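Q: I'm writing up a methods section and want to include an example of the input and output format. Could you take the sequence below and give the corresponding predicted structure tokens, formatted cleanly so I can copy it straight into the document?
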Amino acid sequence: MSTEPGAAQIGQLTAEPENRELWNYSSRNLITPNAVEDYGKYGEYERNQPAYRLIGGLLDTGMGSTDWEKVIRPKIEDAPGKWTSPGQANFLVTAWVASLRKTVSPNLASVNAAADLFIEAHIRRDPDLLPHNSFSYRYLINRTDDTIFKKFMEKAPLIAGISDQNSEEANRNEAGIFAEAISRFLRDELSAEQVMKMRAAFRADANRQVIERSAAIWFRAVKQSIDGDRTLRPDNDLGRSDNDLLSVLVDRVRKGSETHSATTLLAVLSNKSFLQLKKVQDAAEQANLHLLSDDVGRGRSDPFVNDLAQAIATDARGAIGWIGTLPQQSKPMGPDLIPLDSDTIWLSIDTPPGQVAEVLIDPPTKARYTLVGSTNRVYAVPQVSTKKPAEPIRITVRPEEPGRQFLRIETLVPPDRPTDSSPQSKMRVSFLPSYRTSELPSSKKGGSAVIALNKPVIIETRGLDEAWLNVTARANATYIMRTRALQPSEVDTIIEVYDQTESRKLQDDDDGGEESGGQTGSSRLSISPERDTVYHVRIRNIERQAGSFIFEVVEELQAPK
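A: Here is the clean output for your methods example:
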């Protein structure tokens, strides 16, 4: 033990009985050496660093020191199973780590002694370890030697989430510890065999609640390791989206960016235990993990990536379940109504060339939509929301690849049953012509495309561009022109109506669609000609966002007077 002035305080600090009330009181006052002498041993868990640094300075953590065995170990033995909670032993252990932290090159034997103590507490599911000691634990995991770290990693797939606690703070603390471990084993560049052994250690027969919490902790830890400490904050968007995480990692593998690290993390997160969870299955689908070996195998001769990608894809295909079954289990969609009579329904759609399918669901029901191409590749289908709850839901299904497309509809609440007050939802499909803005120039540039009345069209936009369409209108009628189904939501339209010379603007609208209960950024106007005429309509996307939208002109005839 150090012989610096004040060393006798160790006796005073360890003589106090465990007292949480005194602990809380001292956490507000134990901030100076004099205060330590006045108030005794307690400081708020790992946050009162002045106190811990002060006591740590009285401990010798150097080579050959006997302070761990003579000063700290007896207090740990005096409080079996209690050293992790606020008290004498915990205070000394935290002070020991504080002393290591302020040392440029801490003695490895001292680090190992403490790290092994923490790991053993984690393995035996000590309930006080995570709430009171995570800061010290993270430091030790990152600096202990390979033997102790290997011991931790061999148990890591089994100990994450096994604590009896299931609080936000406990999950956040444990994720931070595993994030340190992830950063370290990525630096060590594990072999494919080591990664396969690790992913096989996750128990598929564990309690469901344990698997769910373990998956949440590991996903959170991986997010932190690749995106920094900000992912630990509850309000972080990335921290709430497992779909985004797997897709980001897959994208890195495909692009050859940090390929080994990304493949390793994918292999860990897509273990068979986690793939039992619906949330992880959905994330694996959206990231197309079932196609990973095909995607990365083209032109790449990296055994590490190829071996892991093959294992990941195989397990994902087994968990997803629908691979190779869609032609048999899907219902062909056409103009006839199809009842939404189950919680999950598959539809097959054969879209004619140059067109886009629009699926209408009426009455509307909350649901999740997934599009699968003929090669089993999954595509995201954004749902168009409106401010009118009774308005039918319209889903735009764009063929992303040749051949038949499959649309899965999963209702988020049981589908309405046929009753007089709550009719069953039904679906039908229509096919809309599709144009690029470059195919619809103004008449001054040779354009002459005419839009049929009451026949919507899809317009693809590159952002900050425009399309022109001609509308043949007659007197004694009102024409409602509107945009809808803006995808993505950042697309923002303006409708402008001109005369045939395109030199005189007759009317325009920016957000009329939104104001009348439609989608944000959509436009809507109505115009009634006094005589038969032809309108030249300019539809602009005023944002840089590329995407698409539907434009339509609805004719409403006026009753004869």
